[in-house]
Write a structure and sequence with these properties.
single chain; mainly alpha
Length: 79
């Protein structure tokens, strides 16, 4: 649970800082979000997660990344 908390805080900080890395590598960030979410769904019994909650968080992360950073966007759609 500590690792999940650290990952969540790091992700929120990356989005909140409107990092230039995220703008330059939005495709990689979206793939990473998808893979982490899928791993969370696959191992939901081991990690004691709810599949629906993981899927909603994954889709929200993908949508925010796509809307704010994909295709040359500046990261100001949600700000």
């Amino acid at each position: 649970r500590t690792g999940t908390l650290a990952l969540s805080v790091g992700s929120v900080a990356l989005f909140a800082s409107q990092s230039s890395w995220l703008a330059d590598n939005s495709e990689l960030a979206m793939v990473a979000i998808f893979v982490l979410g899928y791993v969370g769904i696959i191992f939901e019994e081991v990690f004691e997660f709810n599949k629906a909650a993981v899927a909603l968080l994954m889709s929200t992360g993908l949508w925010v990344t796509y809307a704010d950073y994909y295709g040359g966007a500046t990261g100001s759609a949600s700000g």
